[in-house]
């Protein structure tokens, strides 16, 4: 494929990769609906009472698979460097979310299909890609990024506490009360520390219940820490962005380069900031 | 009904629609008690052990229905443009919360009554209307409004995580451990991520329990995000309102225009800010 | 009892009511231990396996009751206006926490004792009184006070949501799935919204589980609100107290007036700020 | 052992006690992996399905025990004052985490081994020691320290509420509904207040469910308090550290004195700040 694009390629690129034009917006919304429909389809297939409608579900699945196939090839032929798209994260997701139905033609066993279903769900990440444009706050993303390292260290400490307390609970309660081994005890400890509390395993001895109370009060106290971190970081992000009001603001649009797929170009930009390719 | 109101209409309008005069306050409190009594009545009717007192409950329900009917017509005759009230949100709620008992005269089946009970509960929104006057902080409302969009995007992301993890749990645990289909697995995943943890479904396999632990620790980490957002936005609202102290503050009272029902007039206002109608 | 106190009365008053002298501190610590011991005793009495040690528990209970009796009369004879102490909140608590064992002499039935046990626990409030001196942050108390009104309005709104959603769940799930009446459904809804999730009642129908998911995500979103309020108010309190550093700080001690029991006198105060009675 | 160290001792000291050199870093990472492996081993030993592999697990345990033994003696011979290391906290942990396997040679009963397993887990604290270097935020640690006292007072108040409410629930629900004694009721109350909600015990009577609802709403309201405290303190720490940027910053490295084991020396320091011993 040559460096210069034909007019119809340019037009198609705009529709598929950008959300600025009415046609581009329509494409994204239709895609979102198809993805949601395919996810619901995967869910319904697993429900027992829908087994009698297997023919309808199969037909719908074929329609969606064909639509995804068309979309996949349209994406390939409208970019200058197709291999870049094919081996990008979203390229692989697109491929894996299209292929399962074709594979089922050759290896149509029940068990194989079940494993393939999980792959199909990766399509949902597409929606996440759209969610990015839907206006998730930059401050929020920054706050989460800034907190991530601290929360990781914190969760690591929680995990160690869970292992130690889990072992103690295993020794105290023993196998006869459901704490049949240390991994299961640690699992119970995480269930309790995070205040989920399924109740499938619960301490029965007075000493076990006393220790469980300590674990819960501990969990109650430490649940405050990650919340405090995010809350504080988010406040900082807000303050910083308020101070930044004096610096000139540049609006980035959702336009994406036909050559290198880089997005987030400034309004009025004529060349891609990444590869220098002209932006139509 | 003419544009000019008779004196008794003005008097009644003041009592029903405003909470500034002693009579108006008394009316609101009596109404609140009747609404609460009617809600408790709806609840008691569903309790088995109260079935023997069905005659008493029925009589009380008739008394409340008649009181609501009187109130409904009083509201209509005291405003200049009754159709505006009738088709307003609270007008429809008032109508729907009064009508069920009359309908039960003609279609008195058990099942129909059950469906009507739900409608009756809409009366409770009246109390919310009063709660507005009880002094819910403006800052709080603003903070929730400012956070709403961000929390929505966040909850959408949580939902996608729940769908993906739910499908994985369905494949890992399978039907024999209660994860009988993907929607049920997603339901379990939401139960776990939100730290509710009913325990009606719980992972039984070691791998399932390991994945559940990851889900819980993830839920523990992300519960911090919406809290951080609200907390930070609320702080901002507080700061802004502190800065606004220099601008002149105008007190709005709960007076409501007899012509267009617009409320929140300035103290000492002589004409409605919405339609120009004189305020008594 | 005359307005002037005898020296031994003054001495005893200092020990019992004040925590500044070594003797006063020792008295408070001993009292705290006795109260904790009595609470543990009440707990143990209810445990089946301790029923064989009933004689020991009874003896210990008599010792504690006699100690409380002595303390009660010592408090009465060391203040100038005993009736003021007797009818104060702590006076009544002291009386009620001492009397049960004496009553059991005359009406020694099992059921009567159970009801009296609850009264005994009011002794624990004594510890709270001490906790006040142990240094609970003033900022924290102020933040809770400032947030209380807003949190109340918020919890009221949560209650209304619980009633409406509870009724809908009752109609959807019905009696056969444990939602046997509306109050029970509302109870389930509160259990779910607060993320407690006992699991004694859990939705069984797909529609019920879908609605439950919405309730949980809603609860997940709104748990953020009270946290945000307290967190923000507490930050404000901290800021204000930092600004207040320029105003002169007066230290209040735990000394309490022998005449009117008013406490929190300034260091070096010679007369009670409440009744003008000399402070020894 | 003399005050002066031989060259190989200096070299070994650097590797074992410091994380600045490549060899030191490698040593720490290898140690971390061994500790994690030993913890996983302890867990697997408790799992029923691994009982047939007892020979392999036993061999692996012996390898790890010997590695720990070598490490323990290497630590002793490379410091100038071995007794200081032996009786330090980490010295005791090292000893206790190495000894169990040797003890099992003499008293190889099943029950004795179970008790020893708990001791082995103390090895995990080693990882915590490393976590310190991995970059846990100083602000976070300070915020937790600053909040600790207030959260303790708060949790103490929660405990008292749990005792009082637990006793009331015991009286209301009684033994037939699982609230078989007051300690168990208090345990249930803590489970509920912390929003864990196992569901092994759940109120059955309408009054009990009503009281439980109050407990849950209370818990919902007060979960906000510790979060608010940490969040606010953490914000303060961040602000203070921003202001402190003007004061000269000194970088502390992880180097540790060969004589007194004191760590946290300034970059470029030539003598131990604690004992004056030259730092290699």
UniProtKB/TrEMBL annotation, chains A, B, C, D:
UniProt xrefs under SUPFAM superfamilies: Voltage-gated potassium channels
Keywords, in A-Z order: Ion channel, Ion transport, Membrane, Potassium, Potassium channel, Potassium transport, Transmembrane, Transmembrane helix, Transport, Voltage-gated channel
Entry membrane topology: Multi-pass membrane protein
Chain ranges passing through the membrane: 29-47, 59-79, 99-119, 153-173, 210-230
Localization of this protein: Membrane
Gene3D superfamilies for this protein: 1.10.287.70, Voltage-gated potassium channels. Chain C
GO biological process, one term: action potential
Gene Ontology molecular function terms on file: voltage-gated potassium channel activity
Record bears the keyword Membrane: yes
Gene Ontology cellular component annotations, sorted alphabetically: voltage-gated potassium channel complex
Protein name per the record: Ion transporter
Originating species: Neotamlana laminarinivorans
